[in-house]
Write a structure and sequence with these properties.
By secondary structure, this protein is mainly alpha-helical. It has 30 helices and 5 strands. Helix 1 runs antiparallel to helix 2, helix 3 packs antiparallel against helix 4 and helix 11 runs parallel beside helix 13.
């Protein structure tokens, strides 16, 4: 190589290392004027273009470099990064794989490939690639962080936590890693530790995403005032932070501040016009309608191949709600189906697993003595509101929370935590772990539950825990809390399943994303609840949604009598009760009883045939 060219390349490389990118660009361009096919000049200029966010230019020069030498692993790696910046993930994946064929021992390239797979929601494949990288370099903090995030998406929270803890050990003052650790703790429903971790991240460098996550954590801990202050602080510091505006809008809606919520969502969209979640949150506010420009923008984003599928799902939901409001039900259900199909492909429902779970529970529970645990903290009375989601559980809780002696604690994950604790204590999966726990161990689990409820929400004698899916754990709850009472909410099957289908339930709740799956899950839930009501008939009351709508005072009186409480007139004005509601029913429960949700499925005609066929098939 000519000495002048070699010197120029060295100078340009030093400028690149020192982040003097435009100067480096000029040097490499001068080299290419003399030697247009200099592979080193082309490759390094490609790196500059990537760093100055001119990925299209980077692709051109890197592809040209490969015409000179198609055996250079680094060039393929750089090309993969350029395609990744352009969101051309398949091409990026191909480039990284080409690099790894030439040199498999590249943890950096494996990490890049894992990121591209994760960007396509292929988290299972991504974890395998990150694992390969970590076998080459176990102390690669960025890869550990990416590994943890994909594991979190897959629900492997314990391994995810170990990975991010190791990354944090390698770089203790990295606020990004601390924030990820907090997010995993939040997913584990470990709110106290999550709060401490987010506060550590903020202490490092005032990391704004940690402020937003801290707000979510504080909300879960019942500190709504401080949660709102967190978000307002972010907005004061970064007025254009769309995530903060969106989270504030969600909190305002949950607190019943619907007009303020609309302003927050539209402010988020002003700063980030493609903010999919804000479009959906705005669309579903009852007193709001998407304008023509907003509908056009959603349609444009859905037509754009660069829009990630996770965003498209929210956008389809936004359009569906918009069409429902304008009585265009055929278009509405079409868009609901498109939104759910994206989720169903990611987490398909497994009929067999649900059936096996029910059969195992029915086999195990009769073996358990009916009151093996002792009643602890007798002044704390837990009331579990259970049933299918969208069966009227939020309405039931709002009515009960209007009673002077009952505190509505909302949708909690405490039972899930205690099930995990029971599995860990016995080293046996649920439900089989119950046969291996002693009376004292079960009593201790019940004590932990009541103590946490009392310390978090103390002041009332009765507490509601409105996690509908606790219907899966009635036997476990009775084993650790012999004095527990259950309010089982039941609704017309077709209306109930349709209402679920019209909402963006968490991806992992596979039953919610497919009409056939919903029919199967609903019938399995019925079978399990029949088993529970036969086993614990004195401690379970069934409340029919349609009966509540037709005569709320009568059903409320029946419910309060079951709980041993006197009737109070305030329960008839439940919609005036001021409390946060962190479910999709936040607006509905703040309105007087209405009957429009009964037989609402009839508006959608033949589109619901798969659901009705499944309900009949699995009956």
């Amino acid at each position: 190589m000519d000495q002048y060219i070699a010197n120029q390349l060295q100078q340009g490389f030093q400028l690149l290392q020192n982040k003097r990118l435009l100067d480096a660009q000029h040097v490499f361009e001068d080299v290419l004027k003399v030697e247009p096919l200099n592979e080193h000049g082309l490759n390094l200029l490609g790196v500059v273009f990537i760093q100055i966010q001119q990925a299209e230019q980077a692709v051109l020069v890197l592809e040209k470099a490969l015409t000179v030498n198609d055996k250079d692993a680094q060039t393929y790696d750089n090309l993969g990064l350029a395609y990744k910046e352009l969101h051309q993930f398949k091409k990026a994946q191909k480039a990284f794989n080409s690099s790894l064929i030439l040199n498999p021992q590249q943890p950096h390239t494996l990490n890049n490939l894992g990121n591209v797979l994760a960007a396509q929601d292929q988290h299972k494949q991504a974890t395998l690639v990150f694992d390969k990288a970590l076998k080459l370099d176990a102390n690669y903090p960025e890869c550990l962080s990416n590994f943890a995030q994909s594991l979190k998406e897959l629900g492997n929270l314990e391994i995810a936590l170990r990975a991010i803890v190791h990354a944090n050990h390698l770089e203790p003052n990295n606020s990004y890693y601390l924030n990820i650790k907090g997010e995993i703790q939040l997913a584990k429903i470990d709110y106290e530790n999550a709060q401490q971790t987010f506060e550590k991240a903020i202490a490092v460098d005032n990391y704004m995403p940690a402020h937003i996550n801290l707000s979510t954590t504080l909300k879960q801990l019942g500190n709504y005032k401080k949660a709102k202050a967190c978000l307002q602080g972010v907005i004061k510091h970064e007025p254009n932070n769309s995530e903060a505006h969106n989270h504030l809008g969600v909190l305002q809606e949950q607190l019943g501040e619907f007009d303020s919520a609309a302003v927050s969502f539209r402010t988020a969209l002003k700063h980030t016009p493609n903010h999919a979640s804000s479009f959906y949150q705005l669309a579903k506010l009852k007193n709001q309608t998407l304008d023509s420009e907003e509908v056009d923008k959603i349609t444009e984003l859905l037509a754009d191949s660069k829009t990630p599928s996770i965003f498209k799902s929210s956008l389809f939901f936004a359009l569906a709600v918009h069409y429902d409001k304008s009585q265009q039900h055929a278009l509405a259900i079409k868009n609901y189906a498109s939104a759910q199909q994206i989720k169903a492909e990611k987490f398909p429902y497994n009929n067999t697993l649900m059936e096996q779970y029910r059969v195992a529970v029915e086999a195990i529970m009769p073996v358990m003595p009916t009151s093996i645990a002792k009643v602890c903290m007798e002044h704390v009375h837990p009331i579990f509101i259970i049933g299918m989601p969208r069966s009227g559980t939020s309405l039931a809780e709002q009515i009960l929370a209007s009673h002077s002696q009952i505190f509505g604690a909302g949708e909690l994950g405490y039972i899930n935590e205690l099930v995990t604790a029971a599995e860990q204590t016995s080293n046996t999966p649920y439900p089989y772990c119950l046969t291996k726990l002693s009376s004292s161990q079960l009593t201790e689990l019940g004590y932990q539950y009541k103590l946490r409820m009392f310390q978090t929400f103390g002041g009332s004698a009765f507490f509601t825990d409105k996690n509908p899916l606790n219907f899966n754990f009635v036997g476990f709850i009775k084993a650790i809390l012999p004095d527990a009472k259950f309010v089982y909410c039941l609704r017309d099957a077709t209306d109930n399943c349709l209402s679920i289908f019209k909402l963006p339930f968490d991806d992992s709740q596979g039953y919610a994303h497919d009409l056939n799956a919903l029919g199967h899950y609903y019938r399995e839930h019925e079978r399990l609840m029949k088993f529970w009501t036969n086993s614990y008939s004195e401690d379970i009351i069934t409340i029919n949604y349609e009966a509540v709508v037709n005569n709320q005072p009568k059903e409320t009186a029946r419910l309060l009598n079951f709980l041993g409480l006197d009737y109070e007139q305030a329960t008839e004005r439940f919609y005036q009760t001021q409390r946060i509601v962190m479910t999709p029913s936040a607006e509905q429960v703040r309105q007087p009883i209405y009957k429009t949700s009964i037989n609402s499925w009839q508006k959608y005609g033949d589109a619901l045939k798969p659901l009705q066929q499944a309900l009949n098939k699995y009956k």
